[in-house]
Amino acid sequence: MAPQKVQKAVLFTRLVGYAFRMLFSHLQRVASTRLAAWTALSPTLVDASDVKNIVVVGAAFAGYFATKVLANSLPRNGKYRVVVIEPNSHFNFTWVLPRFCIVEGHENKAFIPYTPDFFAQAPDGIVSWVRDRVLTVGKTSVRLQGGEEIPYEFLIIATGSTVPDGLPSRLGVDNKEEGVQLLKGVQAKIRAASHVVVAGGGAAGVELATDAKHQYPDKSVTLVHSRPSVMHRFGPELQAEAMKALERLGVDVILEEKAMPGSADGTSIDLKSGRVINCDCLINCTGQRPASDIIAELSPDSISPTGHIKVKPTLQIADDSLPNIYVCGDVSETHDSNPNSRIAARQAQIAADNIVSVVRGRAKRRTYSPEFGDGVIKLTLGLDSSIMQFWDGKSELLFSSKETDLALMCRGAWSAIGAKPFVDTGVYKGQSLTAHEFLSRDRSDDDVA
C-alpha cells in the first residue's frame, strides 16, 4: 500500500509542475503576442501575385488555434496570409454530443460560431476563410470539392477524425441546422425506445449509456463492449469507477462481445457469439478513424496502419520530400494516450511556431512530445456526476465531482474560441468565401496590381 501512496504523491507533484509549466507557457505566449502587436511594422506594399498562402485544412481545436498563432506571429509585411479551409458552418464542440443525444433543449450550444474576434490582435486581412472541403493534397496546392485548387507555401493538416455512423461522436453534416435536427432525431429515437443498446465501451459509450439510464431509469439500457473492461485505454481505477457507475444506475454491461449492427431488425440484435438481445434502438459508438485520406495520393507511406499521418517531432509530415507540410491534432500519429482538445491545441501551437520560424529565417524549431498532464480525461457518469483522471501509466489520481449544468463545459468552450455564450452570430461574417469567390478575388487583385 505504501508504494502506491508514494506513487500517487509523486504523480501529484508532477501534476503541480505540469500546471505551472502550462501557465508559464500561456503567459509567455500572451506577452510575445502583445510585443508583436506593439512592434508591428506598417505592411509593405507587395504585388498580389507575391502574397504566399499558409493553408490550414480544418478549423476544429487544432486548426483554429494554429490559425490564431500564425495570424498573431507572422511578419507584418503583407507577404503571407493564412487561408483556413473548413466545411462546417460552426465549430462543433464534439465533447458534448453524447450528452445532447439524451438531454433536450441544449442542442444549439454544441455549435459555436467562428468569429473574427478570435483574431482581434492580428492585422486586418491576414486571415481568409474558405468554406469548402479539401479532397486531395498536392505538392504545391490543395484541390477542393468543387474542383478548384488553392496554392500553398506551407500547409497544416488538422482534419481530425471521423466515424462512419455519425452521432454520438461526430455529426457528419456541415450545417448547424442539420446538426441540430440530427441531435433531436437521436433524442426522439431514444425517448421512444424500450431497449437501448449502446455498442462500444469507450468514453462516448459509457457517457451515453449512463446518461440514458439516468434520464430514463425505466428503460432497458445495455452496453456491449468487445474488451474485458470498459474504458480499456485508461487506468484500472478509472475502469473500476466507470463500471461501478454503470452498475449503480442499472446499465446491463456485456463485455468481450460485439454487437452486429447489420443484424438489428427493430426488436433485437445479434452479438458476435450468436447471442440475441432485445434492441429497438441501437447507438453505435465504435469505428472512429483519423481523417487522413487527403494525403493518401501524395504520400501513401506517411499513413500508418492505424490511419494516422506519421510525423516528425517537429510535426512535419514524415516524408522528407514534403518539408512544408505539418500535421496536428487527432489525425497525427504522436502516440498520445488520450488525444483531446488540449493536445490538439498544443500541437497546433508548435506546428504554427515552426512555420513562423522558417518564414523568419530561423533554424531552431520546436518539437512535440506527449505530456502526461495533457492526457487528463473528464468522464461523465450520469447527468449529475463526473470523474477526472490523471494517469501516467503507473498510477492514477481520480477526482469525482457533482455536475450542476446539463450543458457541461459549453460556456467555457464558447469563451475559449472567442464567442459570446450563447449568442450565435452565424457563419463567419464578412470573411467566409466560397473557393470560387476567393480565387476570383485573387485574380481581381492581380489585375489591379
Number of strands: 24
Number of distinct helices: 9
User: Strand-residue fraction?
Assistant: 15-25%
Strand order of the largest sheet: 19-9-1-2-5-24
Report the CATH architecture of one domain. Answer: 3-Layer(bba) Sandwich
Distance between the termini: 75 Å
Query: For the record, what CATH class of one domain applies?
Result: Alpha Beta
Question: What overall form do the CA principal axes indicate?
Answer: globular
Largest sheet: 6 strands, parallel
Unreliable segments (pLDDT under 50, ≥5 consecutive)?
none
What is the helix content?
Answer: 25-40%
Work out the radius of gyration.
23 Å
CATH topology of one domain: FAD/NAD(P)-binding domain
Backbone structural class: alpha/beta
Mean pLDDT: 90
CATH superfamily label of one domain: FAD/NAD(P)-binding domain
GO molecular function: electron-transferring-flavoprotein dehydrogenase activity; flavin adenine dinucleotide binding
Protein name: FAD/NAD(P)-binding domain-containing protein
Organism: Lasiosphaeria hispida
